[in-house]
């Protein structure tokens, strides 16, 4: 990877997104709107349901949105021939994926800051741990969605095929991350599967920050999420095709 080329790719992606106002609005505002809808649903019900499931969904929404947008955007580059032209230049696969990851990582940071700030200040999500660490976990999870989106785009021929990876990659993680059933209450086989899915660790980190001021476990979970993101980017660089089939 060459830093100059990587930053040039990132600047190009950010410029494209800035000009696409609908995509930019979806990336930055949709998690806030979804969290607001969730709060509204549970506001008048007894108990603290929003505080119970809010942290998990605060991890999921950026993850899902970044996965979809990144995978579809990368496939658009391939189907239009832009990817092939870029890779015919003095640019490695790592430069291309690194630039995309950097650009969407910047967007993920802004997206997560907005969603966490809204949830903690206006929606009343109670956090025992540091709010800045909650934001870091949200950013890491959004970057994970970006990395997985870049990875699966290598195996899709069209944008529709990229979207089809969502039931395979994303939905099982949502079902097994502990949102619906505590992970230690799952059947042994499903618990074992849950233990190797990155969204489980992001959800655990978010939930722990809400329920405890101790951050030791949070850092461990965060390291797992970052490790999965790096692995996905590495595999994406290894499997990215230079030519459109």
From TrEMBL:
GO biological process, alphabetically ordered: response to antibiotic
Recorded superkingdom: Bacteria
GO CC annotations, alphabetized: ATP-binding cassette (ABC) transporter complex
GO molecular function: ABC-type transporter activity
InterPro entries linked to this entry: ABC-2_transporter_component, ABC2_TM, ABC2_TM_bact-type, ABC_2_transport
N-terminal signal peptide: none
UniProt subcellular location: Cell membrane
Membrane-spanning ranges: 24-42, 54-75, 96-125, 131-155, 162-182, 222-240
Keywords annotated in UniProt: Antibiotic resistance, Cell membrane, Membrane, Transmembrane, Transmembrane helix, Transport
Membrane topology (UniProt): Multi-pass membrane protein
Annotated ABC transmembrane type-2 domain residues: 22-243
PANTHER family with a match to the protein in the record: MEMBRANE COMPONENT OF ABC TRANSPORTER YHHJ-RELATED, TRANSPORT PERMEASE PROTEIN
Family: Belongs to the ABC-2 integral membrane protein family.
Annotated protein name in UniProt: Transport permease protein
Organism: Nocardioides guangzhouensis
